[in-house]
């Protein structure tokens, strides 16, 4: 079953089309990972699912209704998005940041209700951020900061979370910290999570559904065990790789060992007299500076 889906969705910026006639159904209650090379349309699709980017053609549907025709506040009660590298005003505390998640549920500029405060406290507790409630967001570590933003998304009380590269620029420990939190939210609260992921091994380990994109088109889709193959890696990423079961989790583990097609041109030679000699252009010599 799918509450969120696209129908003949075409997206782009100006005259540049990135996604054409996409038909995608997001499985309810699962973690779905969008994977693909840079420029494949992953983030563009996520923005459209979140109603940030309007379609050129077709549409995004939430519970059978066109999402781009629904009021912003109404959509925000069902969908929360964490964009790439979010920033907050200097000095903003964790609690203040998380409280922004209650905006869709407030009328005008009224004070926080009892329900609002309870949701804020719950979101901070669920993400392990209660102890940092009064700490400034810009004083936190990378993993803590990302958890604070996820807490804000949770405070919205939505059934669906959209995350654009949630582990970007985080070290390995903080990456696992964030991914483990998302896995916990999915398993314990049945949250539907759609995330753009660059690390293929994170995608296959933590997601139950993979969508592999190339040039705005879905080439492969399904469970990691079905999608994560050497052929998919060649077709989508232009790499040669072995795929083996992870010795601990059993999830497919990608071990790249080369490019399927080497796009790098021959490196020019440098002669003893410091001249650059370009392959196939032996008569075209450029003096190299020391």
Automatic annotation (TrEMBL):
The lineage of its organism: Bacteria, Bacillati, Bacillota, Bacilli, Bacillales. Pfam families: ABC_tran. InterPro entries: AAA+_ATPase, ABC_transporter-like_ATP-bd, ABC_transporter-like_CS, P-loop_NTPase, Siderophore_ABC-ATPase. GO terms for biological process: iron ion transport. This is Iron-dicitrate ABC transporter ATP-binding protein. Keywords: ATP-binding, Cell membrane, Ion transport, Iron, Iron transport, Membrane, Nucleotide-binding, Transport. It is a peripheral membrane protein. Residues 4-240 form the ABC transporter domain. PROSITE patterns: ABC_TRANSPORTER_1, ABC_TRANSPORTER_2. Gene3D superfamilies: P-loop containing nucleotide triphosphate hydrolases (3.40.50.300). SUPFAM superfamilies: P-loop containing nucleoside triphosphate hydrolases. Coiled coil: none annotated. GO terms for cellular component: plasma membrane. It is found in: Cell membrane. It comes from the Bacteria. One of its GO terms (molecular function) is ATP binding.
């Amino acid at each position: 079953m799918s509450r969120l889906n696209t129908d003949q969705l075409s997206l782009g910026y100006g005259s540049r089309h990135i996604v054409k006639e996409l038909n995608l159904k997001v499985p309810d209650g699962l973690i779905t990972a969008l994977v693909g090379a840079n420029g494949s349309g992953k983030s563009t699709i996520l923005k459209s699912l979140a109603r940030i980017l309007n379609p050129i053609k077709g549409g995004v549907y939430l519970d059978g209704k066109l999402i781009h025709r629904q009021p912003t506040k109404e959509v925000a009660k069902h969908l929360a998005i964490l964009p790439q590298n979010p920033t907050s005003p200097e000095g903003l505390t964790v609690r203040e940041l998380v409280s922004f998640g209650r905006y869709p549920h407030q009328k005008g500029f009224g004070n926080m209700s009892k329900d609002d405060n309870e949701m804020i406290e719950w979101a901070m507790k669920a993400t392990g951020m209660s102890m940092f409630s009064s700490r400034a967001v810009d004083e936190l570590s990378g993993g803590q900061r990302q958890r604070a933003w996820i807490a804000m998304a949770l405070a919205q009380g939505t059934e669906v979370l959209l995350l654009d590269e949630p582990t970007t620029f985080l070290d390995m420990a903080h990456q696992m910290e964030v991914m483990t939190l998302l896995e916990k939210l999915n398993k314990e609260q049945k949250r539907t999570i759609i995330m753009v992921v660059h690390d293929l091994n994170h995608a296959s380990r933590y997601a139950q559904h993979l969508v592999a994109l190339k040039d705005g088109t879905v080439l492969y889709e399904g469970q990691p065990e079905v999608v994560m193959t050497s052929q998919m890696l060649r077709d989508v990423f232009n790499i040669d790789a072995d795929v083996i079961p992870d010795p601990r989790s059993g999830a497919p583990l990608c071990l790249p060992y080369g490019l399927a097609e080497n796009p790098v041109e021959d490196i020019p030679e440098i002669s003893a007299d410091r001249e650059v000699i370009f392959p196939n252009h032996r008569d075209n010599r450029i003096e190299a500076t020391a």
